[in-house]
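note to self: dont lose this again. the chain is below, predicted strucutre after it. 347 aa total, dont forget to put it in the shared folder this time
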Amino acid sequence: MSQQRERSHCPEHVAERVQLHHNYCRLLSLIGASSSSRGSRRRLPWAPGRPSRGLNTISTNKHSPITRSRRHKVKKTRTQQISKHGSSQGAGKRKHPHRLTLDTARKISASLHPLAAFLEARDEDDSRLWRLAQQLFKQPFDLDHFRAELLSKLQRVPYSQPQNPDRHKYTFHDRMKAAGALSVFLRTSTLRRIREWLLLRDIISLDRDLERKHLSVERYPLRFHSFLTSELSRHERAITAAISKYKVDRHSLDEYLSAVDREKMRQLRILCLSRWRGSRESLLGNHRNEYLVAEVGIFKLLKRCLANALSDRFLRRLAVLLCAPPDAMSISEERDEACRKALARSS
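---
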């Protein structure tokens, strides 16, 4: 025993113990920093030997006052979080998902319409299709007349149920009014988006018609523009020859000759546009028929606007009705079936 006391008071042994203690304290600080960075709450074990008074130790006894108070704080904080955000199992998933009503219907998608994207991506001299799109897009739009025309269709055409086709048929107007969807449908924003799809259909339909009848974007025969271009060129040459022959001051006729040249170039541009048809795929997308593109586009628009207040079959037949002629008395079953197949392929 005396030898052990002498060894413990030996300067070399004391220095060794102090060095070991400092190394252990440094190791504890490194491990604690690593654990706090990872969010770990694992407690460190007691060190062998007697720690110094300055060493911060962590009690592992679950019955200690420090541990009980810490657990009480954690439990209280957790209870407050649960009361504020709901249970931990249902915090990320609502029990009753929010359903949009017609009064708070979804806003129409802000994505650019295919027609607007087509007009922004083209030049004036690009194609006949671009020139037609510019012409029809800039035409004045009478919103009241368009609303009255659609209301006339809705009040006139009946909606038949597939189960009982011979049963008393309510009109589209009656069905939409009963569902509370009529006011949403007649909004200015909804009508303008419907008009854009109908305008896209009319542009492509007119482009096909002009190509089939050999007409220009001015709705005149292409032979007329060819004849007019030749005559303007001949007239320009004749005026230039007369100026040289009679020694007339050319400056006095510069304005007139410039006007003749501008008109000749305009006629040449019209002839070139008849050959540069343009790509219809940028407007048609994956479809080949302009009526089908308009019907599918209007169906998806109504499905967003009305927030699923009406069935898909009703919205599909309504889209077909909106694309029908103004004096339509019924819905084309062939068009409805084609629209149904197109929607099935795109879904």
